[in-house]
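Support reply, case 0932

Customer input (verbatim):
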Amino acid sequence: MTGSNHKIPDTTGILLKKDAFVVIVKTEWNAHVTDILEEGCIALLKENNINFKVLVVPGAFEIPFAIKQSYTNAAGVIPDAYIALGCIIRGETPHFEFVSNGVMQGLMQLNLTLPVPVIFGVLTVNDQMQADERTGGRHGHKGTEAAATAIKMIGLSQSAAAS
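Our regenerated output:
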């Protein structure tokens, strides 16, 4: 988080079961950005002793399908959360809007249908500078923030189940 005016999201005091497990689904497209998102995400998961697995998909549009397949095919170990990591950079055509809207709607639908949280860590930016500002720059580190959100939502889910 070099050069960031943002601190690492606080996850202290959130008690999770010992075997908490998260699946990160990240894109190959714009890997120069998504690799940095993944690094920040994994660092916070490790700091909180959370097990994880990374699935890689070609592009952001494929993230909802990969999450659905992962959940459907989970063999005995159902994740406590999914984290979607991607970067969609605006171009000269309407493709940006189609992909951004499709991913957002797909992830929202999964959040409403799956019994585990799906965290939106997909950057939708106008240019590379905006991506850099969100991967450790002046707007923080969205990969780390996605991991913190997952931890908080797992804690919420677990406390709701215990009630």
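We compared this against your earlier run and they match. Two observations from our side: Residues 1-5 have pLDDT under 50 and may be disordered. Residues 142-162 form the longest helix (21 residues). Please reopen the case if you see a mismatch on your end.
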